[in-house]
From TrEMBL:
One of its GO terms (molecular function) is hydrolase activity, acting on ester bonds. The keyword Signal applies. Belongs to the 'GDSL' lipolytic enzyme family. This is Esterase.
Length: 372
C-alpha cells in the first residue's frame, strides 16, 4: 500500500516537472508594444530631462531604481519570462546586451499605425511615436544577423520562440482622443488599427513565428488620466465602477474587432501549426475595479497610487504626474491596481500574467497552448 502511494507521489512529481518543462520549452521570447511593456528602450542613451517615468518612485518595488518601465516594478512580460524560467528580456536597443534568449522591442508611445497615418489626419501634434509596430518588426529584422548565422537558423529559433505582440492601439486612439475629436470619429480608427496589427502578425509569421500572443487594450474609461481629462455627465459613469462608459465601449469594440481578426488569421494559417493567443487586459482591469478585495486591492474609486495628493479625487494631475516634483507614491503599491493613473502596478501585472499563462485571461492560455 505504502509502495503504491509512493509511486503515485513520484508520478505526481514527474507530471509536475513535465508540466514545467512543457511551459519552459521556449528558446526565446520576443516582445513588442508600448509603455505597458517597455523595459527601457526609451532611456538606453540617457534619460531625457522631461521624462518623469525614468525617475523614482518608478521601479521602487522590485528593482529599487527606475529602469524605464512605467510601473513600480515588473511588467506582464517580466512575469511571463520569470515564470517560464527565462531571464528578463533586455530592451532591444540596449548596448552590450545579449539577445539569444530574446529581446524587448517595446517602446513608450508606440502605435499600431505608422506616424504618417496620423499626420495625414492632421494629428501630427498629438502622436508621439518613437517606434510603431512595423518599426519594431524592422528592428527585429535588423537584429537577426547578430542572433543567428543564417536565415534558416533564424527561422528555427523563431519557430521555438514566444512572440508577444502588443498591446497596440492605446496610443493610436489617444491621438484623436487627446485632440478632443468626437468619439464617433475615434471609432473610425478601429478597423485601420486592427488591420495594422493583423499585418504585423502576418510579417512575424513570415519570419518563422508560430506561437504569438496578441493582447487587447485596457478599459481606458477606468483610468485616472482619462477620468481627469474627460469630465462627463453623471449618467455617463458606470454606477458600480465609476468608469466612463463610452470610453470603455471604445476599448471593447477594439477588442472584439481584434478577436475577429485573430480568428481570421488562425483559419488562414491553420495548416502551418500557427497558434495565435488572444490575451485579455480588459477583463482583469475591470475586475480590479469591481472586485478589488478579491485581488488584494483597496476598494475605492479608480485612483493612482503615485500622483499629486489633494489635487483631485483620482490622485492624478497632469502638471505634477508621478515622478514630477510635488508627486508622491502611496505607502503600499501592492494594494493599488493603478500605478500612475496611466499604467498599472506590479501587483496588477502579476495577476494578469498569471491569467495569460494559465487562464482565465487568455484564449487559449499560453502554457496550455504549449502542451498541445
Amino acid at each position: 500500500m505504502m509502495r503504491c502511494r509512493l509511486s503515485a507521489c513520484v508520478l505526481v512529481i514527474l507530471l509536475a516537472v513535465a508540466g514545467q518543462a512543457a511551459a519552459r520549452k521556449y528558446a526565446a521570447i520576443f516582445n513588442f508594444g508600448d509603455s505597458l511593456v517597455d523595459a527601457g528602450n526609451l532611456v538606453v542613451d540617457g534619460i531625457p530631462e522631461y521624462l518623469a517615468t525614468a525617475k523614482l518612485p518608478y521601479g521602487m518595488t522590485y528593482f529599487g531604481y527606475p529602469t524605464g518601465r512605467c510601473s513600480d516594478g515588473r511588467l506582464v512580460v517580466d512575469f511571463i519570462a520569470q515564470e517560464l524560467g527565462m531571464p528578463l528580456l533586455p530592451p532591444s536597443k540596449a548596448h552590450n546586451a545579449t539577445f539569444h534568449h530574446g529581446a524587448n522591442f517595446a517602446i513608450t508611445g508606440a502605435t499600431a499605425l505608422d506616424t504618417s497615418y496620423f499626420v495625414a489626419k492632421g494629428l501630427g501634434k498629438t502622436v508621439w511615436n518613437s517606434g510603431s509596430l512595423h518599426t519594431q518588426i524592422k528592428w527585429l529584422q535588423d537584429m537577426k544577423a547578430s542572433i543567428c548565422s543564417s536565415p534558416e537558423e533564424c527561422k528555427d529559433l523563431f519557430r521555438r520562440s514566444l512572440f508577444i505582440v502588443g498591446e497596440f492601439g492605446g496610443n493610436d486612439y489617444n491621438s484623436p482622443l487627446f485632440a478632443f475629436q468626437p468619439l464617433e470619429e475615434v471609432h473610425k480608427f478601429v478597423p485601420d488599427v486592427v488591420n495594422s496589427i493583423g499585418e504585423g502578425i502576418e510579417k512575424l509569421i513570415a519570419e518563422g513565428a508560430v506561437e504569438l500572443v496578441v493582447p487587447g487594450v485596457l478599459p481606458i474609461g477606468c483610468f485616472p488620466v482619462y477620468l481627469s481629462i474627460f469630465k462627463k455627465q453623471p449618467e455617463m459613469y458606470g454606477p458600480r465602477s465609476g468608469c466612463i462608459r463610452d470610453l470603455n465601449t471604445l476599448s471593447w469594440v477594439h477588442n472584439v474587432a481584434l478577436q475577429r481578426k485573430i480568428a481570421e488569421l488562425r483559419k488562414k494559417h491553420a495548416g502551418a501549426g500557427v497558434r495565435i493567443i488572444y490575451a485579455d487586459y480588459y477583463t482583469p482591469a475591470i475586475q480590479f475595479v469591481l472586485h478589488a478585495e478579491k485581488w488584494g486591492f483597496l476598494r475605492q474609486t479608480p485612483r493612482a497610487c503615485c500622483g499629486a495628493p489633494g489635487v483631485g479625487e483620482y490622485n492624478f494631475n497632469l502638471t505634477s504626474k508621478c515622478g514630477d516634483p510635488g508627486s508622491y507614491a502611496c505607502d503600499d503599491p501592492s494594494n493599488h491596481w493603478s500605478w500612475d493613473g496611466i499604467h498599472l502596478t506590479e501587483a496588477s501585472y502579476g495577476h494578469i500574467a498569471k491569467g495569460w499563462l494559465y487562464g482565465p485571461f487568455a484564449d487559449p492560455p499560453i502554457v496550455e497552448a504549449r502542451h498541445h
